[in-house]
Design goal:
The protein is of the alpha+beta class. It contains 16 helices and 30 strands.
Length: about 550
């Protein structure tokens, strides 16, 4: 979550006086009011709404919610002028492959809106941008740049410029080691043979993303009238959405939006594109989800209060191009509920007679957790989705991929090992030994299932530093406490050290693996200590214990 501060005077000038009723409306909009004084209003913004991180973006949506300016706000987007072009070199493919860019003309900057620009940039970096790993933003004074621009990767020793807030020229490596911002974010380029840079046609370096801009060409002032904006990262669609958030913010400050031609090796892109996305909804589904009985006209009015356009004829919703959180009809339903008012939703007791009881399988899983926590293990819970990089580090071929994923997380995990390894790799400087476990779902292709996917519940246990004998004793103790018999037989398994691995069987059927992880995998995850790991499928055990 992000806490944003807006000037109270500016907020009230547009939205109205912040009295008790207004404070209630702010909370019902889904943005709790944190604090209020004579100078500022402090609001909490949830991570799914980066478009609300600026005063302009917040007021755009909030005014519609108040019923003052309803419907989808339209912006004029001008076509690229001569040399409004960015050439993307193939050298960035392995370091930071994509960018989305725009130019904004005729802005009147002052101390206040320069501060706002810096603030939204850093808020997006720290939230939606995952501390610049996913998204890095650069904003530059156009009067100091010679167009067109080139985006390429260079050897650190070939990168030389004066970084922001510095008075001397540095190389790429010197920036990472000596500049405060370089030291903070240098890990994002660690181990890369080349670093990405934006450079203009005169050879001046504008920035080294995702680290820092140039003092000469990357600092806006009150004299700046036109700016070049770039977003760099790993997912072009996410970058386009981020750019849309930024350019509409600048447009609301009075600027004019201009597109740029992006020339990749095998394709061309033009950004930004503020054409609304379209999604059809089913009124019956919406009403079922919300427990309401809304008709088309009512839904149209409510959607317009949330900044959408809605066509009654074909039930089509036009979604603002700067909304990053709308992935499914359920997200539309949530906004309808906000516009309707959560305070107006009346809870009802279901007209059914049942007695609640904890599922027997869940009781057994809870018992397993209690046994392991009693042995000083820490239980973790991780995401079901992984990135391609996670799979590559684990030497497992990507299995089931999510279609049209809006993030880098698009692989349904086939094992708990990548998730647990990721947790350990993020805690390499924490106290040892580290003993963790997870009971979670994994996913396998299965044509017999209606969805083509088979879900399985597995238990993963890891100890670092640890050895085969230690983990085997843990498993045997767990089996005794559950009153079951598990057989462990030595057998070589991929990813484990030879002679220190085996299969786990239950009632004659193989249900898991155990062993010491091979050093090559430890290196992939940057793990410093030996790691011993087991993973077993719980379904057979749970069914057997439930029936006993």
């Amino acid at each position: 979550m992000a806490i944003v501060k807006f000037p109270r005077k500016q907020f009230e000038k547009v939205a109205g006086k912040i009295d008790e009723k207004m404070q209630e409306r702010i909370a019902l909009f889904g943005t709790p009011l944190e604090s209020l004084n004579q100078e500022e209003i402090e609001i909490e913004i949830f991570p799914n709404r980066p478009d609300l991180l600026s005063l302009q973006g917040y007021l755009r949506s909030f005014l519609a919610f108040l019923g003052k300016k309803t419907g989808l706000k339209e912006y004029k987007v001008n076509k690229p002028e001569k040399n409004y072009e960015v050439k993307i070199d193939k050298s960035v493919k392995d370091v930071r492959p994509f960018t989305a860019c725009a130019i904004i003309n005729e802005i009147n900057f002052n101390d206040e809106n320069i501060k706002e620009v810096i603030d939204i940039q850093e808020k997006i970096h720290s939230t939606f941008g995952r501390n610049r790993k996913k998204i890095a933003i650069g904003i530059y004074p156009l009067e100091k740049i010679s167009l067109p621009i080139r985006y390429e990767a260079r050897k650190p020793s070939d990168i030389k410029f004066i970084p922001l807030e510095s008075n001397r020229e540095m190389t790429g490596n010197q920036i990472l080691k000596q500049h405060p911002t370089g030291r903070n974010y240098g890990y994002l380029l660690k181990g890369k043979p080349k670093y990405p840079v934006f450079a203009d046609s005169a050879g001046e370096i504008l920035s080294m993303p995702p680290i820092i801009n140039s003092e000469k060409t990357g600092k806006i002032t009150e004299k700046t009238k036109d700016v070049f904006i770039e977003c760099s990262g790993f997912n072009l669609e996410v970058l386009k959405k981020t750019l849309n958030i930024l350019v509409t913010t600048f447009a609301d400050m009075g600027g004019k939006i201009y597109q740029m031609n992006l020339k990749y090796k095998n394709k061309k892109e033009i950004t930004p594109n503020l054409e609304p996305e379209k999604m059809k909804i089913n009124l019956e589904n919406i009403n079922k989800l919300l427990g309401l009985d809304l008709n088309g006209k009512q839904v149209k009015k409510l959607l317009e209060k949330m900044g959408y356009n809605y066509s009654l004829g074909d039930n089509e919703v036009q979604i603002p191009a700067w909304r990053t959180d709308i992935l499914h009809e359920v997200d539309i339903a949530e906004d309808i509920a906000i516009a309707y008012g959560y305070d107006k939703l009346i809870p009802e007791i279901p007209q059914i007679a049942t007695i609640g009881e904890e599922d027997k399988k869940e009781k057994i899983k809870r018992k397993i957790s209690e046994i392991l926590t009693g042995l000083k293990f820490l239980e973790i819970s991780t995401y079901h989705l992984l990135t391609k990089q996670d799979m590559k580090k684990t030497n497992i071929k990507p299995g089931i991929q999510v279609e049209d994923s809006k993030t880098d997380y698009k692989i349904l995990r086939p094992s708990l090992f990548p998730s647990i390894s990721k947790i350990l790799s993020e805690n390499i400087d924490a106290e040892y030994p580290q003993k963790v476990f997870e009971i979670g779902e994994i996913f396998e292709p299965n044509e017999k299932e209606e969805t083509g996917i088979k879900e399985k519940t597995k238990l993963g246990i890891a100890i670092t530093p640890g050895n085969f004998t230690e983990l085997r004793q843990i498993l045997e103790y767990l089996a005794r406490m559950l009153s079951i018999k598990l057989e462990i037989k030595e057998e070589q398994k991929k990813g484990f050290i030879e002679g220190r691995t085996g299969k786990i069987s239950y009632k004659g059927e193989e249900i898991g693996i155990i062993g010491e992880i091979h050093p090559s995998l430890l290196k992939n995850w940057h793990l410093k200590m030996p790691l011993v790991y087991l993973e077993i499928e719980l379904e057979k055990i749970l069914e057997s214990l439930v029936c006993s």
